[in-house]
Amino acid sequence: MALSSACRAALFGGLALALGAVAPGAAAPSDRADDRGEPDLGLSAFNNRHYEEARQIWRDLAERGDPRGAFGLGLLNDLGVGGAQNAAETLRLFLRAANAQFAPAQFNVAVMYDSGIGVARDPAAAAAWYARAAAHEYGRAQYNLAQLYQNGEGAPRNIALAKVWFEAAAANGLDAATTKAAAARIFLSSLKPPAAVTLTPAIPTPLTAEAIASVGDKTTLELCWSAPAQQTPVEYYVQIISLASAPAGIAFSAYTERSALLARLPAAPADYAWRVYTVAPAIGDYAPSAWSYFSVR
């Protein structure tokens, strides 16, 4: 779709670039305080091999709705500490934490779908969970999502986007991603530009209730989309509009080179729609996705 002057102003005029605002293996608990302001004492007990103490701490956290609790219990179950391993129960516990937007648990759920452990193998579901964790700057998820795009498994084969996610993983400390990103850049530089370019729209991943989390006066959304390969370099313009008034007003907008980001909205109940524009600045063209609708309640 060619850009009119009005659309060009809307899409390119003054919006800040938002670049997001090793191998598969289960994530372990993090020893950082996280955004809850207190350290995970269960992790300290776990690291000291006081497993029953860790289990009790994590059980108490889980009962209070802290996702680190369910995540820790899932880890103990996965390792078979204090009982037999049960992959299905491990997945249930990791999902409980993942649905609270806890990135290490989202990564572990993705790994289980990716490998077919505890659930039927589903690369597309794995890609969706990797993307949600990647939006939280979880480097291992960014790396694995890049691999899926590189191989065209669970996501469209898209070397340019794989490069972007490898670069993100490298920036988050994964050395192996640096080599992968360099190889992708070499491959992309070897391609000859086509005589004509047709953009293919991205496909937004429907927002589940769990991908919408309200804390205090803010709501955090995990926005992800499937991004086909393009014939020219592109970026993505993400737009959320409020349906509370006519005409609809823009509630959030951002540019990104990635295929997932976090968006924040007021926590007040409201109805919204969002879409992704695949934008090719070099040729002044864009392709919008279909609208996807959600509510904050």
From TrEMBL:
- Coiled coil located at which positions? none
Q: Known Gene3D superfamilies for this protein?
A: Tetratricopeptide repeat domain
Which Pfam families does the UniProt record give? Sel1
* Signal sequence range: 1-18
What keywords would UniProt list here? Signal
Q: Which PANTHER family match?
A: ACTIVATOR OF C KINASE PROTEIN 1-RELATED, CHITIN SYNTHASE REGULATORY FACTOR 2-RELATED
Instruction: Indicate what this protein is called per its UniProt record.
Output: Sel1 domain protein repeat-containing protein
Organism of origin: Methylocella silvestris (strain DSM 15510 / CIP 108128 / LMG 27833 / NCIMB 13906 / BL2)
